[in-house]
């Protein structure tokens, strides 16, 4: 499957040139927009692999649009601009832009910029997923530890005996250890009412 791209630039000739370059290089342009807000709406609807947009556009500039797309985790954004001044670069970094190309656009720079942008975005998403997974594991461990402590206190069990009870209930009921531990804690709360 070719990489699906939305391009946004307020200059139709620039969009047409960029579309030609992308098409020649094997990318699939699935949408075009002339302003930031339209680019955001189009990206929400079409869910592209990448959005390439100019910074200076009417209604909403490319950096503000990039920030929305990044926050909503819709697609990575590659910015194109004729302006390479430091304040714009800083704003782009803060918005979560994954790459930045200064015009005039050279065809030889497009594919590498896109591939780097996609790689960075995929790395970010993988790290985000790993962080969520680790957070879930930590929460599970906390709940299991609390339930284990409760069983040890209430029934005079050793730590390993309490753990095995939770583990056995998990296997017998085809529930996760976290679900069993949460049930133990909930039952205790109800009994204390």
From TrEMBL:
The keyword Transport does not apply. Residues 124-185 form the ANTAR domain. InterPro entries: ANTAR, CheY-like_superfamily, Sig_transdc_resp-reg_antiterm, Sig_transdc_resp-reg_receiver, WH-like_DNA-bd_sf. GO terms for biological process: phosphorelay signal transduction system. PROSITE patterns: ANTAR (PS50921), RESPONSE_REGULATORY (PS50110). Signal peptide: none annotated. GO terms for molecular function: RNA binding. The modification 4-aspartylphosphate is found at residue 54. Keywords: Phosphoprotein. Residues 4-118 form the Response regulatory domain. Pfam families: ANTAR, Response_reg. This is Fis family transcriptional regulator. It comes from Thermogemmatispora tikiterensis.
């Amino acid at each position: 499957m070719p990489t699906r791209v939305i391009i946004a630039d307020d200059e139709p000739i620039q969009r047409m040139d960029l579309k030609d370059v992308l098409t020649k290089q094997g990318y699939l342009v699935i949408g075009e927009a002339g302003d930031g807000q339209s680019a955001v709406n189009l990206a929400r609807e079409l869910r592209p692999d990448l959005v390439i947009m100019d910074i200076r556009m009417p209604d909403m500039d490319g950096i503000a649009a990039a920030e929305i797309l990044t926050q909503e985790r819709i697609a990575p954004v590659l910015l194109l601009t004729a302006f390479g001044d430091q304040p714009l670069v800083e704003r782009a970094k803060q918005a979560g832009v994954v790459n930045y190309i200064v015009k005039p656009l050279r065809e030889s720079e497009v594919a590498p910029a896109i591939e780097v942008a996609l790689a960075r975005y995929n790395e970010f998403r993988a790290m985000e997923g790993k962080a969520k997974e680790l957070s879930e594991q930590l929460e599970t461990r906390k709940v299991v530890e609390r339930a284990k402590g409760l069983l040890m206190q209430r029934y005079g069990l050793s730590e390993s005996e309490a753990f095995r009870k939770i583990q056995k209930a998990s296997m017998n009921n085809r529930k996760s250890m976290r679900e069993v531990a949460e049930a133990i804690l909930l039952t205790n709360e109800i009994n204390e009412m």
